Amino acid sequence: MKTKNIGFIGGGNMASSLINGLIASGHSPQQIWVSDVNQEALQNLASTLKVNISISNEAVIDEADVVVLAVKPQVLREVAENAAASLQTKKSLVVSIAAGINQHSLSQWIGADAAIVRCMPNTPALVLTGATALHANSNVSVEQKDLAENILRAVGISLWVEDESELDAVTAVSGSGPAYYFLLMESMEKAAMELGLSKETARLLIQQTALGAAKIALESDESPEELRNRVTSPNGTTQKAIETFEAGDFSSLVSKALHAARERSIEMSKELGEL
After folding, report:
1. What domains does the chain contain, in order, with CATH numbers?
2. Cys-Cys link to 161, which of 100, 110, 166, 171 (CB 3.0-4.6 A)?
3. What mean pLDDT value characterizes the chain?
C-alpha cells in the first residue's frame, strides 16, 4: 500500500483521521492528495500533515490509485456525478465512507463498471480506535480489497460483510454504538453525583471503568455474559444492580433501540439515494 497514491475528496474530521492513521503507519504524506471546498481546512492539512492539496477534485483523482469519498451524504451525488468522467478515465478504486449511500446509488452516479467499496466507520476512528465494516461490489479486485482494508485499518479494526444489507445492522451496532455508551456514562455520572460524588470524580471513575471493561472484553475469549458473571458475586452489590436493570427489561430495550436504528438506516439509504 505504501506505493499507492491515495486521494481524499473531502478533508473533514474522518478524512483527517484516516490521513493521520495512514501517516502514522508509514504512508508518505507526499502520496496523499486532498481536495475540499474549504480552503482553510486544506491549508491546515497541508501545514500540519504535509499532504498535497487542491481545490479540484479532478486533480486529486488524476493523481490517485484509490479515491476516498469523504464528503457529507447530502452532497455526495453532486460530487460523484461531477467526478464520474475522471473516475471512469482513471479507473481508480472508489472507497465511500458516506453514511446511508448504497452501492446501487453510487454505481448510478459514477458508472456501472466502477470498482466501489462502501464502508461504515465510526467516530472512535478520530482517536485511532475505530471499527469499520466494508462491502465491495463485484468490480473490486482482491488487490483493491486489500488496499481498502488497509486504509481503514489505519484507524482501528476493519472487517468485511458478505451482503451490503448487513451494513444497516452495522450502522445500528457500531456506527451509532458510541452514543449508546455515552448515554450509559451520562446516566451513571448523574446517578453517581446523586450518591454524593463530585462530577470530576464520577466522570473519571466512569471513563476508566468503561476503558477497563472494553479492554478486558477485547483481550478475553469469554463471552460478555461470562465476563459479567465473573464480576457478579451472589447476593452482592453488582447482582442487585443487574437485577434492577433486568427488572426494567434492559435487554429488550437495547434490542428495540438497535432495531429502530437499523430501520432508520434503511430509510435514510432510500432518502439519500434519491437526492
Report:
1. 6-167 (3.40.50.720), 175-269 (1.10.3730.10)
2. 166
3. 95
